[in-house]
Amino acid sequence: MIETTTNWFAACRVEDAVENGGVCVKCGDDQIALFYFTRRNEWYATQNLCPHRQQMALSRGMIGSAGEDPKIACPFHKKTFSLATGECLSGDECAIQTYPVKVEDGLVYIGLNN
Amino acid sequence: MKQEKIVIIGNGMVGYKFCEKIINKKSDFNLVIFGEEPRRAYDRVHLTEYFNGKTADDLSLSTEDWYTQQGITLYLNDPVKEIDRNNKTIHSSKGLTVAYDYLIIATGSAPFVPDIPGINKEGVFVYRTIDDLDLIRDYATHAKTGAVLGGGLLGLEAAKALIDLNLNETNVIEFAPRLMPRQIDSAGSGMLQSKLKALGLNIYTNKGTSSIEGTDRITSLKFNDGSELKTDMLVISAGIRPRDELAKLSGIEVGTRGGIIVNEYMQTNDSSIFAIGECALFDHNVYGLIAPGYEMAEVAASKICNDTKTFKGFDMSTKLKLIGVDVASFGDPFTTEPDARTILFEDSHKGIYKRINISNDGKYLLGGILIGEAEAYNMLLQTVNNKIAIPPNPEDLILGSRGGSAQTENAGLAGLPDDALICSCEGISKGSICNAVTEDGCESIDAIKKCTKAGTGCGGCIPMVKDLILHTMKQNGKYVRNVVCEHFHLSRQELYDLIKIHNLKNYEQVLDNLGKGDGCEVCKPLVSSLLASLWNDMILKKGNDTAQDSNDRFLANIQKGGTYSVVPRIPGGEITPEKLVIIGQVAEKYGLYTKITGGQRIDMFGAHLSDLPLIWEELINAGFESGHAYGKALRTVKSCVGSTWCRFGLHDSVSYAIRIEERYRGLRAPHKLKSAVSGCIRECAEAQSKDFGIIATEKGWNLYVCGNGGSKPQHALLLAADVDSDTCIKYIDRFLMFYIRTADPLTRTAPWLNKMEGGMEYLRNVVVNDSLGMAEQWELEMQALVDSYQCEWKTAIEDPEIRKRFNHFVNAPEEKDPSVKFDEMRGQKKAADWTLA
């Protein structure tokens, strides 16, 4: 039903991703954090920049859950963000951008707008 | 008796809620719903999340088979077009005719669309349904700029949606002189505007729109003041209009400005026809929030079941997060002198504005506004609604108590009457929540949600519900344990023992066996530290690598700007000239800033992630090893030069320091560990400021423990006097194992001792006199850790799988992070300053 002009960017092979953790994907001039939540068998992608102190660091953070909500904690000051919605879960930082992810034939794709 | 039939017109949130309520009261009604939209009822309050990855299914309030399970007949995509009151039947657009005993009109509202020339142009949208959102999203793919007409609550939600759609520029146009004119005052609006501006939203107030320009599609907006704004699309959010046209057509009374007139039972002038939600007009008010809509559903359902509940109007207090900014408005936010007194707090540095209005006698809170920080909202709302007497210094309500005896959060909770409404969406009182804790044993938010439904609506009351649960448990004499986090209902010490007993070797095993959920940044490093303290496996072993704190995961300290610092171990602070040269060469080769640390080592800053394995390869080849500066582990054993050179020295403090440092290197503990050895009473190594410090005496060594520097300096205390070298090490073994086993997470030895019952006397008894009979076991455990030591960096550089993790980009391993920036200072580099958002 929801079909938009998503542009699928091939990020890496499944085995290059870190289990239950993140890697940073270079996507043109952008950096995208890609998370392989093996425990939940889920993939997530967000901007790599933590909005709190503008550090390119989210891919090096720890993932986990708050209730059912999957989340990422920035390694710098432990600000946490929902991986599903991008919303900041610890304080007033603005939300981070999230991207859809799909896996086909062992390749991980990140969905980019336009 | 014949089964009575209730027909519900409208399958929105309130119509759905009515079904839920009536089924809970009495199950023998025949329910039929007609919905105009093609979808099952969905959560309109969280509609913006649709652009954040939530699907229509996520937003749905029920599962597909809910209606069938409940025996409800659901007609979607089929609006009712006529009510025949004489024959008590309705006719649908698709030609169905259904008879009713009771009719519920829950048609909601439609966006109010002002009559502006050009309003029908392409690229102009409203914001109400998922279909609207689909249209907006499709159009936004070829739009660069967008505008929202209306700066009220919904308008700002719509603006957030446009930001989420990645438009380059989003503008908000408000006719009134301020944003959210129904909820906040102009000073509050000013603060909100500056916060939203910082987030990339352009806001224009006091702007009347005169026309929408463009040939077929919108290209710009013209305003009454002659100005113009170019925009590729426009979302109208200028208020709501009750959907009362069907009622009007059937001769049901409606208000002059719209809305189906209802009495306190939600009945229209036809007593078998009810109106609930945004289409209803009660006491000249249309209620555009979800909580009063649910309350109306409850009242109507009660009336049909012959109960006497009435609708008494509704508190329009609200708290929400708008594009990351907390905004709350409660009670009467605008009342002012001479009817009330106001207290204002404004902090434009942090972007906080708070206003409270209190009664002239200073006894009661009447209402207020919170922008930028709204944690106090729930308590303030309760204070208004329950007419709780306010403190003698009412400013404490928004500033917190400054010194003196403070009214604690729990005292505030205790003061609430049992009928205080905690969850206004579901209408749950304090009494019912406390009851659920006491009678039904609900001791978590999830349990309370299931049992009482509190917290399932907007979720704003959840922090208060949490406090209430704890408060009630404590009152019931329940032991509230100091548990790790939501994933482990155990203390650190309990976890330590259980991991050991069950012989668990990695984080996932621990979580599967002892915890629940998927872990978090609190329990992951804690469990990793326990595993390291117990088994001393290489911390980056698969399964444990991503459970390490960031510094442990990359075996280096992350610094400002995202580079790392490198600290090789220099035991006792002794280093050969050859090794000094190596450090200099490595630092020069990789462009590192160098500084001597407080622990007699050399720190090299500014290393790119991908350079770390190369740097360590060179250091290790030259005989260095990891200094564990990144770990909650033994850092350094500092020493003075001692009897080998010093004319006062009693013993060889350097040799002893090296022996100690090499014994405990890499030892993981609840917090970092520091030590020092001084060769005489002059104490040049400052051993009495360390977790364990040793000072030479005429007869041997004095051992001091539980000191630290840092923000709360504390001197170490004498544990044992005049002991020989081997005995001293035995005591340190026991002391450290006791600490590792029993301390709370991230507690250094000084606060650990401060909390210990019996204090130093007790500790001495345990360590020196072996009062617990643990001495031998602890010494053996420590020896096992010492024997299994490995240099983590040596293991890391020899393992290609681990090395791979030190690349910044997974898909461009040879490239470094281009966002890393340095400045220069005194001939070396320094990290560029934080750039603030």
From TrEMBL, chain A:
SUPFAM superfamilies: ISP domain (SSF50022). InterPro entries: NasD-like (IPR052034), Rieske-like_NirD (IPR012748), Rieske_2Fe-2S (IPR017941), Rieske_2Fe-2S_sf (IPR036922). Pfam families: Rieske_2. This is Nitrite reductase small subunit NirD. One of its GO terms (biological process) is nitrate assimilation. Residues 9-110 form the Rieske domain. GO terms for molecular function: 2 iron, 2 sulfur cluster binding; metal ion binding; nitrite reductase [NAD(P)H] activity. Keywords: 2Fe-2S, Heme, Iron, Iron-sulfur, Metal-binding, Nitrate assimilation, Oxidoreductase.
TrEMBL record, chain B:
Residues 5-297 form the FAD/NAD(P)-binding domain. PROSITE patterns: NIR_SIR. Its cofactor is [2Fe-2S] cluster; FAD; [4Fe-4S] cluster; siroheme. Siroheme binds at residue 684. Binds 1 [4Fe-4S] cluster per subunit. Residues 559-620 form the Nitrite/Sulfite reductase ferredoxin-like domain. Residues 317-388 form the NADH-rubredoxin oxidoreductase C-terminal domain. Pathway: Nitrogen metabolism; nitrate reduction (assimilation). It comes from the Bacteria. [4Fe-4S] cluster binds at residues 640, 646, 680, 684. Transmembrane segments: none annotated. It is an enzyme of class 1 (oxidoreductase). Residues 631-767 form the Nitrite/sulphite reductase 4Fe-4S domain. Homodimer which associates with NirD. This is Nitrite reductase large subunit. It comes from Pedobacter hiemivivus.
